[in-house]
Amino acid sequence: MGTKFDAMLACRVTGTRLYGKPLQLIDIEKQITILEYLVAYIRQSKYIDSICLAIADEKENYGIADLAEKNGWNYVFGDTVDVLGRILKAVDKFDTQMVFRITTDCPFMYHEHLDELYEQHIRGDYDLSKFSELPEGAGYSIMKAEALRTCHIKGISRHKSELVNSYIFDHQDEFKLNIQKPDEKLRRPEVRVTVDYPEDLVFCRKVYTALSGRERCIPIADIIDYWDNNEESRRPLEEIGIDWGHGRLWA
């Protein structure tokens, strides 16, 4: 479509609930990290041109750059707090016009209709396109780089945090939005496929093994079926519940 469309993935290893989330292993035997498995999903798109990591400039994050070099991904180091500014630094360096964004502590994502969403995004000249109500961690957004720049100029510190889309969430009338609902089966925000706690990591490893993650990118519908049919495995995650923080699931 003649538009530079890059995955911009903000990364850092520090975290109070679980350290090193992007570098945690989803496949212990094959030494496959959460981040590498997530990129396998992103690579299913025929439109995404490159993978770029926007890494927080702290010594403990240098291992993320090593992983990028090993896999041939682009990367930049940037501000540890201003996550949006860090992504824009990568946007400027790689001349990106459209940004694909997903958090890097999510090994699984709803990839099946990513290219369809991108086509809608381009045809409709939207500032942001996304699916709503997906399991927590399975969603993502497509954004104009210029819309993100507007967020950085107008936003306060909270809008520049890891909730990169939060200025748009707060000022929806300023942007042209394309919010799609997936099939009803997939509208399950209470299902956790993010890795924020040790219990999440245990569950995601079980999913990866049980549903043949080594051979394929597991469809989110299959993970929902696994969740519904394995009460004992999901119970620790149900106790964690949904993080309804300000604009969190939307952003």
Would you count the extended β strands for me? 9
What is the number of helical segments per DSSP (H or I, 4+ residues)? Answer: 9
- What is the H/E order? EEEHEHEHEHEEHHEHHH
Distance between the termini: 26 Å
* Order of strands across the main sheet: 5-4-1-6-8-7-9
* Structural domains: how many: 1
* Overall 3D shape: globular
Largest beta-sheet characterization: 7 strands, mixed
In terms of DSSP E residues, the strand content is: 15-25%
Q: Return Rg in Å.
A: 17 Å
The CATH architecture: Alpha-Beta Complex
The level of helicity is: 25-40%
- Give me the CATH superfamily: Spore Coat Polysaccharide Biosynthesis Protein SpsA, Chain A
Unreliable parts: none
Query: Please, what is the average pLDDT?
Result: 93
So what's the CATH class? Alpha Beta
Structural class given helices, strands, pairing? alpha/beta
CATH topology: Spore Coat Polysaccharide Biosynthesis Protein SpsA, Chain A
